[in-house]
Amino acid sequence: MPHEKFDLSRLERLNDESRFKALDPRVLWAALDTPAPDVIVEIGAGTGLFASRFAAMAPQATVYAVDMEPEMVAWMSDNRPEVATGALIPLLSSETAVPLPDGCADVVMMLNVHHELAKPDTTYAQAARLLRSGGRILVADWSPEAVQERPPVHVRATAAQLAAALTGSGFKDVIVHEGLPSHCLVTASQA
Q: What range defines the domain where residue 119 resides?
């Protein structure tokens, strides 16, 4: 599967809140349709910009900001104020193994991650393992039609391809959502 990992030299770009224009957290939250989750896991959280926003949107929740790059996890630990309060927990993982227990999450999110995955089926299997029965996954990534230099078009997936990846990983109630200007947005439920 073609993929492209994030260039760590561009780390500060991940903190640009103008990213919320393309990936509006309110649109993402509405698509999840999970009003009061206790545990949220963001796989591929980067510097935790979105995980931090979701911690504010769900103050009762614990948010795990999972990334496979030690530099990202260290950056979150040193710079996200929600870490000090325990609302946000940075966590180092691999692409194919997230060190959290089975069925621990109400919500799993993957934002701009699909195009980076060498083994998407294995990562989606991890997401399914983390979700409790009835828990929700949200996947958003750059649309092949988006006018954007990075990531290259050949590593982007259509909404139908994202939906098929979720269905193939055993998720049910797969829904393709509209509302994002340059991203495909898909949600599904744990079987």
A: 25-189
